[in-house]
Amino acid sequence: MNLPHKLSVILVSLIAAIQLPIYLAWSSEEIGENAKKITVRIDGKTLGSGVIIKKEPGDENSYTYSVLTARHVILHTDLTENGDLMTKEVDYEIQTVGGKKYRVTCPNDCRTLDEQENIDLAVLKFSSDQEYKVAELGNSNEMNEGMTVYVAGYPSRGESADLSLIFQQGMIQTAYQPSSDGYTLKYDISAQRGTSGGPVLDEQGRLIAIHGKADVHPIQGATTSNLGIPINIYKQLVQPITLIEACQPGNYKGRINQNQALEELQNALPKDVISDFTLRWRSGSDPRSLQSAIQNKPIDLKDVCKFYEGKDHQKDALDWLQLEIDKFDQSLMDKFNRKY
């Protein structure tokens, strides 16, 4: 074997060894087929959609499925004048792919998420002996302007014997815009009434948002875009994110809401806690670094996430800060998660 050939073999081997995994985009047809399997229709006083997100063992040979939807789909007409949830039972019907129907009774089979902050999300549960596909949850923090997304749902067309799923392709216009009810993801899809609560999918068919709100022009009154609640908001409501997870490169994007959450958390903590954290963050295991840390001003938490590299002393510092926050005021992390 000659030298040039040997070098080429070595080079190819090195490239193969360090190559990162590549996630290939599905075809729109594949994503459409996936959407049919995971999207359900919700019938009640209003018509809406939902997406199957969990399957758990049930009684005997059955399963218990969890459906994520928009809160207003099931609570639209069941509120008191003060906005409180009525205690009376209300029946809804979930219709899955193939047309099979399941009755659910709220509030027994329903759960709203983060009512205090009015995040427009809810979970319904139904039991079945049928096998249904469960949506794969994506990472909505990885979505950026210009990326392709898909919305699926069942539009309001009266009672029909067959399910008429609508499936639309569009593009993200704004990855984050401030919103009090969670609708921070904006895309150029003009979805129809009845599709609220349906899935917003990425190019790998993963669930990255729950669709549910039209973006109406304040002057013209026209609707050219729609809004969704990023799936990471749901994740943080059911399993709050830790500081280490918040700072990981896949999660921290330097967006306005993320920096605001970090700034508000820092401002709420005692100065001596931030000072101690600064020492731990900057010191590492080098005494000279410790002396340097003592002489420098306290670090900004947004810079912590910006320069986080996953080093042991960084993880230790964030773990320590997490414990200090819990001791000082446990509600701070709840507020942080809602903003982040």
- Helix amount: 25-40%
Mean pLDDT metric = 82
Q: What structural class do helix, strand and pairing data support? A: alpha+beta
- Strand % is 15-25%
CATH architecture designation of the largest domain? Beta Barrel
Per DSSP E runs of 2 or more residues, the count of β-strands stands at: 13
N-C termini distance: 57 Å
Q: How many domains is the backbone divided into?
A: 3
Poorly predicted tracts of residues: 9-21, 285-294
Q: Which fold name is given in CATH as the topology of the largest domain?
A: Thrombin, subunit H
Describe the structure.
Strand 1 (39-43) and strand 2 (47-57) form a beta hairpin. The chain folds into three domains: 36-128, Trypsin-like serine proteases (Thrombin, subunit H, Beta Barrel), CATH 2.40.10.10; 136-237, Beta Barrel (Thrombin, subunit H); 240-339, no CATH class. Strands 5-4-1-2-3-7-6 form a seven-stranded antiparallel β-sheet. With 340 residues, it is an alpha+beta fold. Helix 6 packs antiparallel against helix 11 and helix 7 runs antiparallel to helix 10. The chain has eleven helices and 13 strands.
